[in-house]
Amino acid sequence: MKKEVYFTIVFMLIALLTLSTIIAEDIRPANQREDNGIGVQVRPANQMNLPSNGNGGYVPTQGSSYNSGYTVPLSAQLKPINKTNLTIVNGTNITTEKISNATGNAKFVVNKASNTLSYDVQYSQLSSNETGASINGPALVNQNAATLLFLPLGINKIGIIHYADAIEKYLLSGQTYLNIKSLLFPNGEIRGQIIQA
Asked: What is the pTM of this model?
């Protein structure tokens, strides 16, 4: 009787050890090495859509699983939106054009996992004080659209904002633009289409 109990206990311990080894193998993180063209690339199936960092490696996303999303770099070149004004002087129509010499650059990073947009916007030579900055869409180049996101005032804008799910498709498909307004150009002095960098 004692031998049977001893045998049963030993058998159960072996079974538990075997089961724990199998479970541990299933939850072990997948291999995250990429040979970068030297030999055979080793990239697990659950990480096939992740972008490479250019150095032969890549980083899992910040989401709950490897393929829940990743970051996408975007950029915009800010150029003046020159406006023509019609002024009436002594009953005569005089057309004048307001000219801006302002320029700027913007870099963005969309994080699809956290629905955040990182931004780094810089401009110079705005004709007058800035009155507003926004990302508008959906719109193609030279089209106008409603404001989707507001950015803070200032020559150097650096930060992170959250966006609604519906906006992401416009950001990633080049259908948004950055618009910066000023006192002399209340509808926008400089703007740039936001495209993938």
From this structure: 0.63
